[in-house]
Write a structure and sequence with these properties.
With about 260 residues, this protein is an alpha/beta fold. Helix content is about 45%, strand content about 15%. The chain contains 11 helices and 11 strands.
Length: about 260
């Protein structure tokens, strides 16, 4: 579990960080005095829970929460403030909680015990995959998995969408390049992209997430914790986190997702 904290007042930030670490000693907790630094960390490496001071110089906690929700709609946002005037704004953003200062371990534990989007990692999962909003892949430590090529990441996204069904190289090429002819040149290029994808997975010790057959690939859903899979199982947290965006950076994704719904 990865938790980010922000407050532009040093002593308040110190108290917040200490309280969170006491409440969740097994979590990775990172603290920031500048909202833009927390936002950058969330964009680059992901985040499960964010504790945000509401009144900050430069960017309010409410504005920061909106930015974080664009990165990950199911991120748990917990506002921290010395004023009660912002409760309505906080709730309109589907926040997970609201803590009045001074912050202490008991208050943090109370909010963490009742998250809007409960964090219950799938047992034995070696990857966490986010399909709602932008597609992204995270390692167990919360770091974003970096693919060598963007098209290799798109191949993995399509395999995730297929949820364990075998995909031939020709099918993958048709999705990635639509109406382009499937000739020897394109076949070789797709094979290069697949090799780059497997290289990235292997470099992070998660190559077991994909099974290779003769001229075909399939993702191994048993080792992946995925919001899309949870959604199909009617998991309440996944259903609540869906904001009408599915793998939004890929033109083919909405079409296939709509087919799944109807």
């Amino acid at each position: 579990m990865k938790i980010l904290c922000v407050d532009d007042e040093p002593l308040a930030l110190q108290m917040l960080e200490m309280s969170v670490k006491k409440a969740k000693p097994e979590a990775t907790v990172l603290s920031f005095r500048k909202p833009k630094d927390l936002l950058l960390e969330a964009e680059l490496n992901g985040c499960d829970i964010a504790f945000l001071d509401i009144q900050m110089r430069g960017m309010t906690g409410v504005k920061l929460a909106k930015e974080l929700k664009e990165i990950n709609p199911k991120m748990n946002i917990i506002f921290v403030t010395g004023f009660s005037d912002y409760a309505t704004d906080a709730m309109s953003l589907h926040a997970s909680g609201y803590i009045m200062k001074p912050v202490n371990q008991e208050k943090v534990e109370r909010e963490l015990s009742d998250l809007r989007f409960p964090i219950e990692p799938k047992k034995d999962a070696i990857l966490r995959v986010q399909c709602f909003g932008n597609f992204d892949v995270f390692l167990p430590n919360g770091e974003r998995l970096r693919f060598e090529r963007s098209k290799s990441k798109e191949i993995f996204a399509y395999l995730v969408h297929k949820q364990g069904s075998s995909c031939a190289t020709k099918e993958i090429a048709a999705v990635l390049f639509e109406d382009a002819p499937y000739d020897k040149k394109q076949q070789n290029y797709v094979q290069q992209l697949i090799s780059a994808m497997m290289k990235s997975l292997k470099a992070n010790g998660v190559e077991a997430s994909v099974s290779k057959g003769f001229n075909s690939l399939a993702v191994n859903p048993d080792v992946i914790d995925c919001d899309y899979y949870r959604f199909k199982e009617l998991d309440s947290g996944a259903v609540n986190s869906y904001q009408n965006e599915y793998m939004s950076q890929y033109y083919w994704a909405d079409f296939f997702f709509d087919d799944d719904l109807y």
